[in-house]
Amino acid sequence: MELFPSSWLYGILANIVLLVLISIPLVYWKRKGIKGPPTLPFIGNFLHPTRPIPLMQMDNLRQYGHFFGMFRGRQPVLSISDPAIIKRILVQDFHLFHNRMPTTDSNVVLSQNLVSARYDKWKRVRSILTPMFTTSKLRKMEGLMGQCVDSLYQALDRLAKTESSFPVHNVMGNFTMDVIAKCAFATDTDAHNEKENKFVVNARKLLEFNFIRALGTFLVPIFLKNILQTFRIKYFLSPERDFFLNICFQLIKQRKQNTTAKYSDMLELMIKAKHGKDRLMEDDDKFDSYHVNVGDEEKLREEKLLSEIIGSKYLSEEEIVAQSFIFFIAGYETTASTLTFALYELATNPDIQNRLYEEVKAIVDNGEPLDYDHVMKLPYLDAIIAETLRLHSPVLTLNRQVSARYPIPEYNYTMEKDESVFIPIYAIHHNPEFHPNPLRFNPERFMPENRDKIIPYSYLPFGGGPRNCIGMRFAMSEAKLGLARLIKDFIFFKSSKTCDELKIKNGLFLLKTTPVWINNNNNNEQQQFCSK
Ligand code: HEM
Q1: Is 469 flagged in the annotation as binding?
Q2: What are the binding positions for heme in this chain (predicted)?
Q3: Of the residues 184, 215, 258, 432, which has the maximum number of CB atoms within 10 A of its CB?
């Protein structure tokens, strides 16, 4: 007779494996003498069902300081919010911090996108794409953006006439959807009016936050995802994603067949892009490069890094599709949130709104148009957007993975190869050590005369170093052209539905809050509201 039936043995073994899996996170940082918050088995320190990430970041900063250990799923990560070390990681020692943490996207086409690409693949694609986002190239897209600003204006005009209050994110989301669909997918969405438009419906589904999918991102390894997809398990399929990939492949095919038609969108720029053909940076880019922490030192390093040729000088069809997709994912929600929070702050701070109005009106009074050249360099408008991005940073965290052992002497710690770093943007932006009175919306901080008081690498809405947000200038032009045009004619103010304090909700990578509602009136038609 068996002393222990085999099912018992399997049970005991399974329990031992489970115990080891659970206890690794409990001892990993302790063994290295690094403090950190308690960890949930398998989930780690992210995705707490009741404590949204931004609030957790601030709790942890208060309790554990600028340097501590935590877990993403079962992966150990260091949280670093010391600006001097952040600069080393993002810029000076970039050769060791090329990569983000590996993603678990198993789609062969999409894994070539700029956010996920690694090592030389990233460098090649980035060096071909960077010239697409210089001032002179963005000016070419002004016409396309202008059409979307017109639709936004009309939508707000209708709301001013018919509603006592409107949910700002819906309207701004429609605007940024129109812009990115036009510029990256050559598609007219008319999102303000056509709610059933296939593009709009698929896009919204794709970007919905789903707790189970989010858990899957951390916990399920690629090989398992592939198997689950083969068996068509719902949570591991994405028909919405396939919809966008198909559109993009079809468009490239059409463009290659019809070479006489002229386009001025991103897709065309990518099809024509060639390494070394255009400048990586232009003198005009200087004005807003502080948003990505680029000064002379960073500029030189970036130019040196990206001027090297590796492999093909052109993007392949799959690479172009992957980039269109990531531009959409990275650009739609982030810019919509920025505009939403900016309008919330303007509605709740009438003095600031008035000063912005005066700045914009001065251009119009001078007989000049509110176009790219006149709007992009308005200092107060720029400062309002910067302060919005500080106080309500849409992206919560930056991450990098180290490719060799790396000492951090200040904290008497050496990172192991492949260990990762998280940079908690939200907590850094709300830390009074760096931004006095951090909860106050105060655009003055970012006026040119005050900017040198900001500690370098303590303002990181678009990240920093050669892997910063490539779409920063695109997002800025979209936001500035939109806001300038609206503020010229509309007055925004609080309604009975406007929250005095926005409550933060659970989201995975991006800031989510309770809905923002405000009211607006057309200044030209409603003279009784004309406090301007
Ligand atoms: C207000 C709007 C936006 C915000 C706040 C934002 C923020 C960010 C941040 C924080 C990063 C990570 C940077 C780092 O790791 O150092 C990033 C990367 C990126 N963003 Fe944006 N972004 C915005 C708009 C856009 C737009 C409009 C596009 C495209 C048109 C875009 C495309 C990308 C891409 C492709 C990357 C990856 C760059 C690389 O790894 O080389 N973003 N963005």
Answers
A1: yes
A2: 469
A3: 184
Whether residue 9 lies inside any domain: the answer is no
Residue 492 structure tokens: 């925004």
d(CA 362, CA 159): 27
- Most informative mutation of 88, 179, 462, 510 for ligand 1 (most atoms within 8 A of CB): 462
State the Cα–Cα distance between residues 199 and 160, nearest whole angstrom: 27
Residue 251 lies inside a defined structural domain of this protein: yes
CA of 71 to the centre of ligand 1 (A): 24
> Residues 179-201, buried b or exposed e (16+ Cβ, 10 A)?
bbbbbbbbbebbbbeeeebebbe
Q: Is residue 196 part of a domain?
A: yes
Enumerate residues lining ligand 1, CB below 6 A. 114-115, 126, 326-327, 330-331, 334-335, 338, 394-395, 398, 461-464, 467-471, 474-475
Q: Could you tell me whether strands 420-424 and 75-80 are parallel, antiparallel, or unpaired per DSSP bridges?
A: parallel
* Stated pTM of the model: 0.91
How many angstroms separate the alpha carbon of residue 13 from the centre of ligand 1?
45
CB atoms within 10 A of CB 11: 12
DSSP code for 455? P
Distance 330 CA to ligand 1 centre (A): 6
Could you give the CA distance from residue 300 to residue 279 in angstroms, rounded to a whole number? Answer: 13
Number of domains present in the structure of the chain? 1
Give the domain extent around 132. Answer: 81-529
CB distance 437 to 429 below 8 Å: no
Residue 90 belongs to domain with CATH number: 1.10.630.10
Nearest CA to ligand 1 atom 42: 471
Tokens 């004619």 label which residue? Answer: 489
Taking only the tens of pLDDT, the chain with its 532 residues reads: 555 566 667 776 666 666 666 656 668 898 899 999 988 777 778 767 778 999 999 999 999 999 999 988 778 999 999 999 999 999 999 999 999 998 766 677 888 899 999 999 999 999 999 999 999 889 989 999 999 999 999 999 999 999 889 999 999 999 999 999 999 888 888 899 987 888 888 888 877 755 555 555 555 555 555 655 555 555 555 788 888 888 889 888 888 888 787 888 899 899 988 888 888 888 888 888 999 999 989 999 999 999 888 888 999 999 999 999 899 889 999 999 999 999 999 999 999 999 999 999 999 999 999 999 999 999 999 999 999 999 999 999 999 999 999 999 999 999 999 999 999 999 999 999 999 999 999 999 999 999 999 999 999 999 999 999 999 999 999 999 999 999 999 999 999 999 999 999 988 788 999 999 999 998 776 544 444 4
Nearest to 329 by CA among 184, 130, 479: 184
Instruction: Give the contacts of 423 (CB within 8 A, at least 6 positions apart).
Output: 79, 80, 81, 86, 89, 90, 397, 398, 399, 400, 460
157 alpha carbon – ligand 1 mean position (Å): 31
Domain assignment present for residue 59? The answer is: no
